[in-house]
Design goal:
Blueprint: H1 2-17, H2 24-27, H3 31-36, H4 50-57, E1 63-65, E2 71-73, H5 77-84, H6 88-104, E3 122-125, H7 127-140, H8 142-155, H9 157-169, H10 172-185, E4 189-196, E5 199-206
Antiparallel strand pairs: 1-2, 3-4, 4-5
């Protein structure tokens, strides 16, 4: 029954993918939401980096999470270059995203200390960003969604602190569920943390 429900949800999401007006969420923002939202991830993405992210979507299924919740890539550098046409610079970016995720995993007493923030410790993805950087990974699983977020955080230091906190605190399954909701309802996603004193707690939703 669970498998049927998941399949049905995926089918709905796929239908929505091909019928969405790209910037509908932006057009429907209230004035309060516009004031609250200081940045979306799309504000950081450079055209020159898009080929890397496009190639990355093709290897999401080769990421795994080990027993310590650390990302592991099952491909060698040679396979990345020969089978998926990653350049040497892009391969280094893949190594960097894996290191980024490993460093972000919260161990006891290792919560982020800085209170600097981007949009109150949350990253906002509009409809276009959800489809470009999250949806493909969400369809594959938690390791893939962690790889997608870690890639964004490692490539763009301006949001790296917040993405690192997200990767360290927020579970991949919860992010996937929120992404599927956003796709089905033609909305954007925010992912981040709320602070309860010194303790970070997951904060996810659609907008």
């Amino acid at each position: 029954m669970l498998k049927k429900s998941i399949s049905f949800l995926l089918a709905i999401c796929m239908v929505c993918t091909f019928s969405l007006p790209t910037f509908a969420a932006e057009a429907n923002l209230s004035a309060a939401e516009r004031n609250r939202r200081q940045v979306t991830i799309g504000d950081y993405i450079n055209e020159s980096d898009k080929p890397f992210f496009e190639k990355l979507t093709k290897i999401y299924s080769t990421f795994e999470l080990d027993e310590n919740n650390n990302l592991v890539l099952t491909l060698t550098d040679t396979e990345l270059a020969e089978n998926y046409k990653f350049t040497s610079t892009e391969i280094e970016q893949i190594h960097n995203l894996i290191k980024f995720q490993h460093n972000a995993i919260i161990q006891e007493g290792n919560a982020p200390a800085s209170r600097l923030h981007v949009s109150d410790w949350k990253i906002y993805f509009d409809v276009y960003d959800v489809h470009s950087y999250l949806f493909a990974a969400a369809q594959i699983g938690p390791a893939a969604i962690m790889a997608a977020l870690s890639a964004l955080g490692s490539v763009y230091p301006g949001v790296g602190t917040v993405v690192g906190a997200i990767v360290g605190v927020v579970g991949g399954g919860a992010i996937i569920y929120t992404v599927f909701q956003a796709v089905a309802m033609n909305k954007g996603v925010y992912i981040g943390i709320d602070w309860d004193g010194p303790f970070p707690n997951p904060a996810l939703g659609t907008w």
